[in-house]
Amino acid sequence: MPLIGYARVSTEDQTPLPQSEALLLACCAEIFEEHASGGNRARPVLARVLERISKGDTLVVVRIDRLARSLSHLLEVIERLEAKGAFFRSLRDPIDTASPQGKFTLQVLGAAAEFERALIRERTKAGLASARAKGRIGGNPGLRTKDPAALRKVRLARQDGYMERLNETAQDWVPHVRRLRPDMAWEDVLRIINAPLPHDRHWTQSRLLRAVKAYVGDGFLPAEVLGRAGRRETDDRLPAIVAAIKGADPEITLQAICDRLESMRERTPRGRTSWQPSSVRMLLERAEKLGLL
Predict the structure, then answer these.
(1) Between residues 275 and 171, which one has the greater pLDDT?
(2) Is 111 part of a structural domain of the chain?
(3) Does the structure show a pLDDT above 60 at 144?
(4) Predicted confidence band of residue 19 (pLDDT cuts 50, 70, 90)
(5) Which of 10, 130, 263, 278 is catalytic?
(6) Where in this chain does the record put each Resolvase/invertase-type recombinase catalytic domain (predicted)?
(7) CATH no. for residue 264?
(8) Rounded distance, CA 215 to CA 103, Å?
(9) 133 lies in a domain?
(10) H-helix or E-strand containing 35?
């Protein structure tokens, strides 16, 4: 099982060398280094690593905080790995999802996260019940009177909450949107985004467009991604899709591209449902001639 290492430091002044050396000693075949804040989930190198990993691989980090700064993000990444049949290991923490002990630790972490959410719900219910018993009406008085300032605060809070939820999933879709739009139609971008994700995390086109517009509005994505996609000849569509998959992971194998196309339910040039590496190679060659790679 190939071991793939990921090393991260927060600033350009720091060096990931100690982490990379530890990962090398752990026999990692490949090591990816990134300078980015741990609180930022839209990390391009991490997104590329998660795209690169395939069945049987193991993602290795020196410490959990090099991968994620929150329990929810850690569990989200591990869920993506499990969906691909891959594993996760931390050298300094007792987590190795390929072992029974590591799986147990992960289950404990997941239970702790759910317990914390349950406590918050119970405290909220108890607080509301206590207020009602004392004759107080729950909620914001400004909202009950439709005060403009209060309404504006609620709208901003909801927007902040929405952006926070988007940031948790940004690594799934932002790199693809930034790289493929507006050259590729939204329908095809959506299929490329959804292909490696578990079914319960699939995006709809309307939801993706809303997220992109929010990121454009806050300056996280250029306005050009919302531009109208140009008309593409029918014969150029498949090379464009294959080029997009290859562009997201230059090291991806021909067979892995076949698997991705089949998961997208994309038919071969001859209308078949089963893809062969030779067909992918032909499309990649055409993509190069078209200047798509």
Answers:
(1) 275
(2) no
(3) no
(4) very high
(5) 10
(6) 2-135
(7) 1.10.10
(8) 36
(9) no
(10) strand 30-35
Q: Is the pLDDT confidence value at 58 over 90?
A: yes
- Provide mean pLDDT across the span 78-92: 89
222 shares its domain with 261: no
In sequence order, the 6+-apart residues with CB closer than 8 A to the CB of 1 are 56, 57, 58, 87, 98
CA distance 197 to 176: 13
Nearest 5°: phi and psi at 291?
Answer: 75, 25
User: Looking at the chain, how many residues does it have?
Assistant: 293
Backbone angles phi, psi at 283, to 5 degrees: -70, -35
Terminal CA-CA length for the chain: 30
User: How many structural domains comprise the chain?
Assistant: 3
The DSSP annotation for 214-280 comes to HHHHTTSS-GGGGSPPPP--HHHHHHHHHHHHHHH-TT--HHHHHHHHHHTTPPPTTS-SS--HHHH
Q: Are strands 87-90 and 95-96 parallel, antiparallel or unpaired?
A: antiparallel
User: Do 262 and 176 fall within a single domain?
Assistant: no
More confident residue, 199 or 225: 225
Phi-psi region of 32 (alpha: psi -120 to 50; beta: other; left: phi over 0): beta
Q: Is 130 a catalytic residue?
A: no
pLDDT of 141 > 80? The answer is no
Domain housing 14: 3-101
Structure tokens of 265? 């339910």
Q: DSSP letter at 85?
A: T
Domain boundary among 226, 256, 281: 226
Q: Indicate the residue among 101, 117, 135 that finishes a domain.
A: 101
What 3-state class would DSSP assign to 177?
helix
Ranking 2-11, 12-21, 27-36 by mean pLDDT, the lowest is: 12-21
